[in-house]
Amino acid sequence: MHPFPHEEETTSVRAALRSPQRLRTEVLAGLVVALALIPEAISFSIIAGVDPRVGLFASFTMAVSIAFLGGRPAMISAATGAIALVIAPVVREYGLDHLLATVVLGGLIQVVLAVLGVAKLMRFVPRSVMVGFVNSLAILIFMAQLPHLVDVPWVVYPLVAVALAVIVWLPKVTTAVPSPLVAIVALTAVTVVAAVSVPTVGDEGALPDSLPALLVPDVPWTLETLRIIAPYALAMALVGLMESLMTAKLVDEITDTHSSKTRESWGQGAANVITGFFGGMGGCAMIGQTMINVKTSRARTRISTFLAGVFLLILVVVLGDLVALIPMAALVAVMIMVSVATFDWHSIRPATLRRMPRSETLVMVVTVAVVVATHNLAIGVVVGVLTAMVLFARRVAHLTVVREVPTDAHDTKVYAVEGELFFASSNDLVGQFDYVGDPANVVVDLTAARVWDASSVAALDAVTTRYASKGKTVQVVGLGGHSADRHERLAGHLGGGH
C-alpha cells in the first residue's frame, strides 16, 4: 500500500487520465502556463545575453524533463531570472558554447549534491525564512511587470484592468475554463479586431521556427575550460537547487501533499544536463508559473508540467504568428494576480505582527529586504537562515542558569548548572562562580545541562583552572550520554583552559 494514499490519489497521472474533468483541468493549466512562460523565457534570454530561442528551448526541455524526473508533481521548471543572472558573465566573456558547457556541468553538480543529501538541509530553513521567501517572490514577480506598464500607450491600462476583472470575477461564475486563459484569449481578440496598437509578445523578441536539436558544446575539453566554467556552474547549481527546493516545499504546503526533495534535486540536475545538450540556457523551478499551475489553475499532476513544455514548443514553433499577437497587458494582469495570490498577507496583519516574536518578524523582513535588493533568492534565503541562527543562539544563550545548591558539608559548595552549553552560552559560564569566597571543594553538577561543543568543555576547563590557581579542587558531575563522552574526550586537551 502507498504510504500516502491521499497523495497518490491527488497526484496520480493514471487517476487524472481516467477522469475527463481532472484531465481537462491539467490540459488547460498546461496551456495557461505555456502562454505565461513565453514572455518570461524571452526576457530571461535578454538578461543572459543570448538569443530568445536559447531561453525558449530551455523552458521546453526543462519542463518536459522534470515532468518525468522531478520529485514534486505539478511544479514548473524552466529558464529563470536567477539562473540568467548567474550565467550572464559566461556568455558575455566566453560565448554561447561555454554557457552550454556550464549548464551541463551545473546539472552534474546538482546530481552529485542530491546524492550527498543536500535536500536534507531544508530542515534548517525556519518558517519565518519561508514566509520571507514567499513574500519576496511575490514582490519580485510584481516588480517584473512594472517595465510593461511604463511608457506604453494609455489603452494598455484599461486592458490590464479588464483582464484583472476577468481573472477575479469569472471563477465566481464558472470554473470550467481557467480565467487567465479566458483573459488572454479575450484581450488578444479585442486588440486584433479593433486594430489596437499595444505592445505584444512579438515585440519581446523573435520566436524560433524550428525544433531544438541535440548538440555537444564546442569548447576545448581541457582543465582550463573547467577552471573557467566551474565557479559559474557551482553558483548555478546552488541557486537552482535552493529555489527549486523552496518552491517544492511551498507547493507541498499549498496542496497538503508530500514530495521527494532528493528526487527533485537530482531531477533538476538531470534536466539541466539534457537542456545543455539541446542548446538551452538551463533553469530551475519557477515560482510564478508554478503558482499559476497549482493555485490559479488547480493542477496537481505531472501532466500539466509535461503539457506546459509541449504547448510552449507548439505555440512558438507552429503558432508563433498567433502567439506574437497576444498583448503583454494580458500576461501582465495574469502575473499581477499571481503575485497577489503568492504574497502571505496574513504575515503582515497587525494582529499577527503583535502576536509574533520580534525575532521571527525580523528574520522575515531581512529575508525580503535582501532578496528584493539583490534580486537573488539564494542570497536572501542564506542571509535569512543565518539571521535566524544568530537570533536563536542569542536567545538560547541566556537560558543557561547557574545556582547554588544547599549542602551539609562545610568544606564543599555545590553549583547546579541548568540549560544548553554551547559557544554562545558557555562564554558567560566562567564568570558565575565565587572563586575567592568558595571553600576548598567545589562540585559542579551538570545533571540538568547538556554539553554541545568544545567551547563548553573549554569553559569548564577554565573554571577548574581558576579554582586550582586558588588552591581549590573542582569535581564535575552529572554528565551523561554524548555530553559525558564529549567532556571526557576533550577535557584538559584544549590548551590552557581556553
UniProtKB/TrEMBL annotation:
Pfam families: STAS, Sulfate_transp. InterPro entries: Membrane-Transporter-like, SLC26A/SulP_dom, STAS_dom, STAS_dom_sf. This is SulP family inorganic anion transporter. The keyword Transmembrane applies. It comes from Phycicoccus avicenniae. It comes from the Bacteria. The chain crosses the membrane at residues 27-48, 54-70, 98-116, 128-146, 152-170, 182-201, 221-241, 301-319, 363-393. The keyword Transmembrane applies. Its main location: membrane. It is found in: Membrane. Residues 414-498 form the STAS domain. One of its GO terms (cellular component) is membrane. It is a multi-pass membrane protein. Keywords: Membrane, Transmembrane, Transmembrane helix. PANTHER family: SULFATE TRANSPORTER YBAR-RELATED (PTHR43310).
